[in-house]
Amino acid sequence: MPGHRSRPLVRIALALLMVAVQSSAATSAELKIFGSRVTRMMMADVGPGFEQATGFKPVVVTDVAAVMKRRIEGGEPFDLAVLVDFQADDLIKAGKLVAETRADIMKAGIGVAVKRGAPKPDIGTVEAFKRTLLAAKSITYLKEGASTIHLDKVFAQLGIADALKAKTIQPTTESVSEMVAAGEVELGIIVIPNILSVPGAEVVGPIPADVQSYIMFTAAVSAQSLNPQAARDLIKLLKAPATIPLIKAKGMEPG
């Protein structure tokens, strides 16, 4: 599997990083990371090695990216943020993130989820996608988020926004895939790695290319970080060529 093949490369990258960083592994400290689920998924792979190499343990705090942005705006302390690109840019303008550390890490397309084992509807064309949405008993997508902004525009363009309202559930947390897995909702629409993270949910496929949007996740260091060099080192690792296979294994592409 891609993830397994890439692990030796990640170990090499971490070894090189260990030479470059100045922090000592003997003095363990926490590196607080604000992000969404995709951030937690990536840190599950690279976090333990990073801690071993640098002595900094990544502690990932997650919620819908828009919520995490508000927490940053509210002054909550953290070291590194991995949010949607336009959110990171807003926070840089506000002086909350360091502009020179900005780095696009990974991007994810929007997909459709069903409960594992359920029939997969046709979403291969825009018209088929439209018919499937209209025929579904219920659908769910986030109440707020980058994908939500795009989907609302798409549904309006397709002329089905009003028809979908009555049967749409929009959670305030990243629980779209869980709701589908539990059989609470027939179809879920969210970024593909989110679907892949829930065993009981299954990816039908990406939404059609003509209405697709790729959500870019961008990292930057907090302007108030107490561990700015460690945060920069983690960005360096996330951007390393050896990390690319891990990003792809999560259903994403490098930034």
Question: What does this 3D model show about the protein?
Answer:
The structure is a single chain. The protein is α/β, with parallel strands linked by helices and 255 residues long. It folds into 2 domains: 143 residues, Periplasmic binding protein-like II (D-Maltodextrin-Binding Protein, domain 2, 3-Layer(aba) Sandwich); 104 residues, D-Maltodextrin-Binding Protein, domain 2 (3-Layer(aba) Sandwich), CATH 3.40.190. The chain is 44% helix and 22% strand. The protein has 11 helices and 10 strands. Strands 1, 2, 3, 4, 5, 6, 7, 8, 9 and 10 form a 10-stranded mixed β-sheet that branches. Helix 1 packs across helix 2.
Principal-axis shape equals elongated
What is the tally of beta strands? 10
Q: Name the CATH superfamily assignment of the largest domain.
A: Periplasmic binding protein-like II
Helix and strand composition category: alpha/beta
**Approximately how much beta-strand content do the residues carry?**
15-25%
Task: Pick out the low-confidence regions.
Answer: 19-27
The CATH architecture of the largest domain can be named as 3-Layer(aba) Sandwich
- Can you tell me the CATH class of the largest domain? Alpha Beta
Biggest sheet architecture: 10 strands, mixed
Q: Return the average pLDDT rounded to an integer.
A: 91
Alpha carbon gyration radius? 19 Å
Kindly give the count of domains: 2
CATH topology of the largest domain: D-Maltodextrin-Binding Protein, domain 2
Q: Tally the helices: what do you get?
A: 11
Spell out the helices and strands N to C. HEHEHEHEHEHHEHEHEEHHE
- What is the helical fraction, as a range of percent? 40-55%
Distance between the termini: 22 Å
